[in-house]
Amino acid sequence: MSQLALLPAGKRAKTKVQNRTAILDAAREVFGEIGYEPCTVRDIIRRTGLAAGTFYNYFKSKEEVFAALADDGARRFGPILKALRSQNEDFESFLRAALRAYFRFLADEHQNWAARRPAEEHLHVQGQTPEMEAVFSEVRAAILDAIARGGVPAADADYLAAACIAIAREVGDQMLNRRPVDVDGATAFSTALILSGLKGLPQAQAESAGSS
Fold first, then answer.
1. What's the domain range around 25?
2. Model-level pTM greater than 0.85?
3. Which of 26, 86, 100, 107 could be disulfide-bonded to 47 (CB atoms 3.0-4.6 Å)?
């Protein structure tokens, strides 16, 4: 029986949270210092000071640790996005504010890790967790509101939300590889790209309907 199992229930729950947090904090440091590809689970374990068996009680691989870090970021960014939606009535203002907030969040969150990550490969989590779904739903809801008010052409809200998030992720990856990290430039580029695409949607939809 493990030492954790011998602890009282309250203490055990607190220790589990502390262990998981220690692993994620160590992973952020290791990914930043060594890089995602070269590092191993052993590198992360050494930084935590925990036993290897303890690590594997929480994660099976470094890929799972990376996914947990991404999920944690989505969980903390969700409330920021929700607040921005309530503060900006028109879609363009919301879009610009949301993109700027995301790029700033990304730069601050990964200053010791993603900002020094080699630009060899973009790392994205496959699949959607509830936290990531919440971010998607918030963007989709803002789009549907804008369509209802006539501020955005009628469009497939699922496709459009996915496109906005994908653009933010890819531009964010490139932004982090630049020196200095250019939050304003990334915001201006992404906002213009999405808004320009929206202007072309009616024609694209008409052409699609005509060819069907």
1. 8-60
2. no
3. 26
